[in-house]
């Protein structure tokens, strides 16, 4: 099992405000297991964990593992500057104007 380096490090902003650069599949697994918010450990988190482990075992590429890690980070709202259109708690569309009546549209 060899560590697999990403083509470019991924920076995530953790829930307590600290930033972490993730440059390898092993670092990604460590971040997913130890620092990921519990509420965000859903399907995209599981797929990212599996892809990073598969990259370590040579079953998938570093590119695929990095892509899954980024997708999980976006879903968890951990990517700096990324504003998702879904609420992190309920999965409802985010309301840009603050008017909750728009959610029903």
TrEMBL record:
Superkingdom of origin: Bacteria
Which Pfam families does this one have? DUF982
Q: What is the lineage of its organism?
A: Bacteria, Pseudomonadati, Pseudomonadota, Alphaproteobacteria, Hyphomicrobiales
InterPro entries with a match to the protein in the record:
DUF982
Q: What is this protein called?
A: DUF982 domain-containing protein
